[in-house]
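User: Run a structure prediction on this.
Assistant: Running it now.
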Amino acid sequence: MNTQELMDIALKAAQLEAMPADCEITVPGENIKKVLMGVDMETAEIMLAQQLGFDCVVTHHPKNTDMDMIDVLDDHIRKLEALGVPRNKSQKLLEERKQELNYNWHVANSRRSESAAKLLNMPYISLHTPADIIGERMVQEFLDEQFGGKPDTKVQDIVEALEEIGEYKNSSRKPVIRVGSKDSYAGKIYVLMSGLTGPGAQILKEYLAAGVGTLVMMHIPEKDAKILKEQGIGNVVIAGHTSSDSLGLNYIAKLWAEKGVETTMMSGVVAG
């Protein structure tokens, strides 16, 4: 296997035709049999991989902070349009969050890890959106199966169901309710785990206003949760960040194993 074949398997599993801007084959490689994968793989992990004899390093979170990655947030425009929100409205609401990321990333020290991988000639790829889409789909299908057609479902029921999934059960950070209470009716359950990062409170308000009763997410800033509480119409369950990342990463690693590639997990990946 080579790095392009590894990437293609992940993209196919996520039903993507091309690499999103938050994915990259930074250092290509051939004859890959042993992969070291983690949620965050930086210079220290790359050096460790070389020392331990791995053929490739895979990071979930991209380290390049290239400005074009911000456009991955536009996935929320398409998601909201499917819920009936006009794309012109969500596009304008998303601009505040995109500008916030622009300010933060413009001053960032970009490509630290990538430069180390190149100096060490260590094959290095990032897999962000594909793993997030896979995890999002897995959790949505699971919750639909558990609670479809059950209008009396409460938010606490969602929390307890999530803990049946291995990655959440085995994580030290369990699913929590950030907006709403355990006795709140769940309503329509919508899993939102892809789209680069949190889209900001204004976009999240649109999901809830469009008929979603409970958002299930990886993470949410306290300031956004406070704004949603003030809106008073929906709930937010936080499943967990690295545990949710692990769902897609573990799935991709299983697909690679079918092709003879052995993946060792570290740096935040939770076993399923």
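Residues 159 and 180 are 12 Å apart (CA to CA).
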